[in-house]
Amino acid sequence: MASNKKKNKSIEKKSTTRLIASGFALIILVGALLLTMPVSNRSGQGNFLNSLFTATSATCVTGLVVADTYQNWTTFGQVIILCLIQVGGLGFLTLGAFISVLLKKRIGLQQREQLHESVNTLEIAGVVRLVKKIVVGTVIIELTGAILLAFRFIPRFGVARGIYFSVFHAVSAFCNGGFDLMGVNEEYSSLVAFEGDVVVNLVIVTLILVGGIGFIVWDDVMRNKWHFHKYLLHSKIVIATTLILTVVGTILFLFTENQASFAGMSPLEKLLGALFSSVTPRTAGFNTVDTAALSNAGKIITIVMMFIGGSPGSTAGGVKTTSIVVLLFYAGAMVLNREDINLFGRRLTEDVVKKANAVVIINFSLAIIAAVIIMTLQPLLNFEDVIFEVLSAIGTVGMTTGVTRSMCAASRIVLIVLMYCGRLGSLSFALIFAQKKTSASVRQPQEKIIVG
After folding, report:
1. How far apart are CA 315 and CA 96, in angstroms?
2. pLDDT digits (tens, 9 = 90+) for 193-236
């Protein structure tokens, strides 16, 4: 009986994963078709591959672009991109469920199961209530961010454009989208013009971090306020890891970039630049310092941050903070010859370790395979730039050294696949094609091998 229940649950999970995968694919296709329309392009001529790349990047909240968002797309096209970012950040199932709640439609058990997988909650109970909090909380946070950004953008761009830019960048930052409209000043400049602006830097950084910690952490913090000891183990790990990565990353960038990309800056600008450079690789994709100008050490730190990414159940990508923490503590337990993996007075299950290991290996393997393919297609491309780009794509980061714009059509298709896999989750993507799990009636004999 228990075996049948587990089997049914596995089938439901796979069907939900396929629904999410096909749903995102459909949204990307519709977005690409809309962006191909003459009304979306300033030139009046649409290129389907470029539109597909942009729609994928927006829906998968990545931020990699093959053409400057402001210079290439009309206001209509930019609004399409913004809608794709919002849907991609929250998830179409979440938005669909919220609309059903507004229309007072009953949400059945199957829909709740789908939401449970989409939002990535620990249990199905209370998932509809969480969806309400997610959507309402998102609107409040994005609106607050937009209002704060407006104090800087309106004086610079005028009232109408300033408000529009504020909303666009607030949504893009919270959803970890990485798209910007600063091509109005200079192509592909991102937020470089605001490198010393305290308000813009802190607002964008806060939006990125809040969007990247995950909806389940929001709910936990709202319920338990400042009582950290009452938080779920998941929330404790996410919050602690996020703080450590942010602080340590800031210190490392201050050290590595002081005489490199930060040269000539004031102490305040260096501090803001280091903080921003520490946060944005965690799948946001904005930059206040030219990414190509980073020192080799700075690029390595950025690559590591991009690979880690944000946290589960958030708008961010990457292998996730929890996966890295689990594997680090697992390695520590092995070194110390401890049987259990303990964090914050709790013991982790073996399944969690297996899943974390699978996620990291699959992500790393996909990035390496993609890099090999691209380097085979275009052997003249710089190796470091290609590695940077593929990790940016699989981690749905969007940071770039500029090499994406010089890639051929086939290489761009490789990045499209990586961004799609990164948004779904590499393990979830792999499970779509997995065969039905079967229990072997006869198990093979065990034998030890030497490892390490």
Report:
1. 17
2. 999 999 999 999 999 999 888 888 888 888 898 888 899 999 99
Give dist(CA 124, CA 116) in Å, integer: 5
Nearest to 54 by CA among 302, 385, 404: 404
Write down how long the chain is: 452
Helix (H) or strand (E) holding 300: helix 296-308
Radius of gyration of the chain (CA): 22
- Write the single-letter amino acid at 372: V
C-alpha pair distances (Å), 332 with each of 48, 80, 255, 423: 49, 47, 28, 30
| C-alpha span between 357 and 427 (Å, rounded) | 10
Q: Which amino acid is at 271?
A: L
Q: Does residue 39 contact residue 76 with C-beta atoms inside 8 Å?
A: yes
End-to-end alpha carbon distance in the chain: 41
Among candidate residues 99, 89, 65, 328, the one with its CA nearest the CA of residue 190: 65
Tell me what the mean pLDDT of segment 103-118 comes to: 70
Mean pLDDT of 274-290: 91
In the chain, pLDDT over 90 holds for what percent of residues?
52
Tokens of 275: 């903080």
Residue with tokens 């290489």: 411
Distance in angstroms (rounded) separating the CA atoms of residues 243 and 241:
5
How far is residue 137's CA from residue 147's CA, in Å, rounded to a whole number?
15
DSSP 329-370: HHHHHHHTT-SS-EETTEE--HHHHHHHHHHHHHHHHHHHHH
Written as six digits, the tokens of 359 are 């996620």
What is the C-alpha to C-alpha distance for residues 142 and 69, in angstroms, rounded to an integer?
A: 20
Unique residue bearing structure tokens 């013009």? 193
Q: 241-274 pLDDT, tens per residue? A: 999 999 999 999 999 999 899 998 999 999 999 9
The answer to whether the beta carbons of residues 167 and 154 sit under 8 Å apart is no
Query: CB neighbours of 209 closer than 8 A, spacing ≥ 6?
Result: 242, 246, 279
- CA distance linking residue 76 with residue 79, whole number of Å: 5
What DSSP state is assigned to residue 401? -
pLDDT score of 203: 97
For 41, the 3-state DSSP assignment is: strand
pLDDT greater than 50 at residue 2: no
For residue 41, what are its two tokens?
A: 């392009």
Q: Helices 159-174 and 127-157 meet at what angle, rounded to 10?
A: 140
